[in-house]
Specification:
Length: 221
């Protein structure tokens, strides 16, 4: 039998079979090392030593891929705390979700339109609904409320992710503090309050406000 020529395919180690889980895991590796912009089908094909067309069997497009990556990151959220009221635990879950998105600035902005449908996203929805039910929130209000709460978490992270204080912010502060009380009396009287509060306090206040509204506001017939 004639031996195979040097460097033939028969001498190379077999590549692991492609799976959706493996593709998403590779996407997470690229995300952490190079950012979301590099999480493309072409880049993942290089990472997995295959052709881009092979990936489309498992993931329809980059948008679906980003949603799958988001779902995997939702799986890293800490478990629901044991202690505290249902409101406190609900707020802690939402704050953890916001913090995770803030840690991945590009993904936070992509999450505004991404629609994950994996097991971790479903677990998050189940957790939020369960906490609202524990507080006696009617089912319809809880169902609509979950969407509102997650929208705020996502929008907050998208707005502030990777943000560095710059000239725009300093210009706004200067404008608010020097505005005329003759032309803008309400702003002049509230300037310091408009600028007050830590990001953590503002986020907590926003979630509490939303939870109060969800609890008391009926959905339309």
């Amino acid at each position: 039998m004639t031996p195979p020529p040097p460097g033939s395919r028969r001498e190379r180690p077999a590549k692991p079979a492609l799976t959706r889980e493996g593709i998403v895991a590779a996407a997470l590796t690229v995300l952490r090392a190079e950012g979301l912009r590099k999480v493309t089908m072409r880049r993942l094909a290089q990472e997995l030593d295959t052709g881009p067309a092979s990936l489309y069997v498992y993931v329809r497009n980059t948008h679906e891929l980003h949603a799958a990556v988001l779902d995997e990151l939702l799986g890293t959220l800490p478990p629901v705390p044991d202690g505290g009221t249902w409101r406190e635990r609900l707020e802690q879950v939402l704050t953890s979700c916001t913090a995770m998105l803030l840690a991945h600035p590009e993904l936070a902005r992509s999450a505004l339109t991404a629609r994950p449908s994996g097991p971790h996203y479903l677990n998050l929805i189940e957790t939020l609904l369960g906490l609202l039910a524990e507080g006696g929130v009617p089912r319809a209000r809880a169902a609509w409320g979950v969407d509102l709460l997650l929208q705020h978490a996502t929008a907050t992270a998208a707005e502030h992710a990777g943000e560095e204080p710059g000239d725009d912010w300093q210009n706004l502060i200067g404008t608010l503090r020097t505005v005329s009380d003759r032309t803008h009396p309400h702003i002049a009287g509230s300037a310091e309050v408009l600028l007050s509060g830590t990001p953590e306090n503002r986020l907590s206040w926003a979630f509490q406000t939303l939870i109060n509204g969800i609890e008391r506001t009926a959905v339309p017939e």
